[in-house]
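To assess whether the prediction recovers the assembly geometry, we first specified each molecular entity separately, as shown.
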Amino acid sequence: MKRIVILLSGRGSNMQAVVERCAAEGWPARVVGVVSNKADAAGLAWAAERGIATAVVDHKAFQTREAFDAELARVIDLWGPDLLVLAGFMRILGAGFVRHYEGRMLNVHPSLLPAFTGLHTHRRAIEAGCKLAGVTVHFVTPELDHGPIVAQAVVPVLPGDDEESLSARVLEREHLLYPRAVRWFVEGRLQLADGIVTQLDGESQVLWPASVLS
Ligand code: GAR
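The predicted structure of the complete assembly is given in tokenized form:
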């Protein structure tokens, strides 16, 4: 049984998708803890209501990033995780922290990486005139929003889209893609070699929009 710890800073809809798919599909895994840097994160309350252990490590209580990272790792390691799932965790993690969890930390980012790292991905995609947008699940490396790509989902950018409409379209895909990628990890179906991730059963690592497939 693989032990999953989820890190979040807000709403937690991706966490919910992972928790629910894990239970519904009977993965050989369990979400053993949810930790946030924000005490009022809605996702924490949702997890606590379902009996999942929660913790808060408030970044504002620490003088340095290293001190915050050290406390975060201490709290996380009490749960003995096999996998860390970043689900809207909006703090930059230091290289030491990332190395400690190398090969066992996944992130979801709302763009087709390596395009649009950082914030405001949807607005920037619209402003750049992109015709496609999407979401990426990747292993975390010290460079922000970089790292071996596990899976991507693609959506069209439609005429008249604004940040809100595009982010809603992408989020719907996030909720399908992220649980799928986490399940691959906990079932041992991912291989990472030379920075390239392969799904060992040959299952598609890309979710295309229905309009492309039909
Ligand atoms: C999601 O869209 C996720 O991709 C994004 O934050 C949102 C969190 O929503 N993550 C990042 O931008 C990380 N760089 P959620 O709390 O409802 O899952």
